[in-house]
Write a structure and sequence with these properties.
Elements (H helix, E strand, L loop, with lengths): L6 E4 L6 H10 L4 E5 L17 E5 L5 H8 L4 E4 L6 H6 L1 H18 L5 E7 L11 E2 L10 H14 L4 E6 L1 E3 L10 H11 L2 E4 L5 E6 H13 L1 H4 L2 E5 L5 E3 H11 L4 E4 L12 E2 L2 H4 L9 H11 L12
Parallel strand pairs: 1-2, 1-4, 2-3, 4-5, 5-7, 6-14, 7-11, 8-10, 9-13
Antiparallel strand pairs: 10-12
Length: about 325
């Protein structure tokens, strides 16, 4: 493969893509973004002048849109997805066809020499055992349609020879295509604007990772592809296996007037509850660069600009 391989990024105008694509261009890659722009986002405006960027409007499920682009690129990063349990529950057909079937089509149509780096979700672990870290060897037991379609996509991607899958923790941080419905982003937004939040099942734990660190993980995977291929990797913060109540305590260190309330009755529709080990990816030389506190500080600044529900997927 050439020193600076060309890259096709589906969903490249989304929350992760609009952070990753400028970093790929800065590394000297030629990048094509295929996106449906379903949220009317203009998140790549600032890099349209780059001659190494091409943008195509299309649906990642449509072979007529995908196949002509596929044959022109060395690497595929399929970011296009309906992300999160609520959005997938609202559009079950879209979840299955975008999150799973489009990945299966790519895996089937790509040549043996092309590389695939795929974002999966560690929500596939479902409900873990108390005090026991989920590793890449832990059985996947997804409890939502979102988790199930992403686990099925992982099987399809790893079924081909040249693939890396990143099992992502819950992502946070500012991005050109912002999302307010992610847990940290949502809690900080409520802390800034409402100064309170009602927590259901506040003891449920999950892991977190900054969106720029997710982008850095993909760059790391490209640079170390031969030694990492054929495997899934958890990507998260080793010091951020936190319950919702613990997350609120961290936010209160920045916004002392934030007063979370724990509901005595009611359930969280997202039943995920687990802690995650990221030792495997760290053993390859990857280390996150942005802490939870870094993300909270930048979100507070960002929310002085943003207070619009159009930045939420649901």
């Amino acid at each position: 493969m050439s020193e600076k391989p060309s890259i096709l990024v589906t969903g490249g105008a989304g929350y992760l893509g609009s952070t990753l694509v400028p970093m790929l261009l800065a590394e000297g890659h030629r990048v094509t973004v295929l996106d449906s722009f379903m949220f009317q986002q203009a998140s790549l405006n600032h890099i349209c002048a780059d001659p190494n960027l091409d943008i195509q409007r299309g649906d990642t499920r449509d072979e007529r849109a995908v196949l002509p682009l596929l044959e022109k690129h060395d690497i595929v990063i399929p970011l296009a997805a309906l992300v999160g349990a609520p959005l997938c529950a609202r559009d079950a057909v879209g979840a299955e066809t975008i999150n799973r079937d489009a990945i299966r089509m790519l895996a089937d149509k790509m040549s043996r020499d092309q590389w695939m780096l795929t974002p999966i979700t560690n929500s596939g672990y479902g409900v873990g055992e108390a005090g026991k870290f989920c590793t890449e060897e832990t059985p996947m037991r997804p409890i939502s349609l979102y988790g199930r379609t992403k686990v099925e996509a992982e099987i399809a991607a790893l079924g081909r020879e040249n693939a890396i899958n990143f099992r992502l923790a819950t992502v946070f941080g500012m991005s050109p295509r912002m999302r307010l419905d992610l847990l940290v982003n949502d809690f900080v937004y409520r802390a800034v604007n409402d100064r309170t939040i009602v927590l259901f099942e506040a003891h449920f734990k999950r892991n977190f990772i900054h969106v720029r660190d997710v982008a850095r993980a993909f760059l790391h995977g490209i640079s170390n592809f031969e030694s990492m291929k054929g495997e899934p990797y958890n990507v998260g913060l080793s010091d951020a296996n936190l319950s919702k109540a613990e997350l609120c305590s961290v936010i209160r260190q920045h916004l002392p007037n934030f007063m979370p309330l724990e509901a005595e009755v009611g359930e969280d529709p997202d039943k995920r509850d687990y802690i995650v080990s990221i030792e495997k990816v760290e053993a390859t030389g990857f280390k996150p660069a942005y802490s939870l506190d870094d993300g909270i500080r930048e979100l507070i600044k960002g929310y002085r600009m943003i207070n619009d529900s159009r930045y939420s997927n649901v």
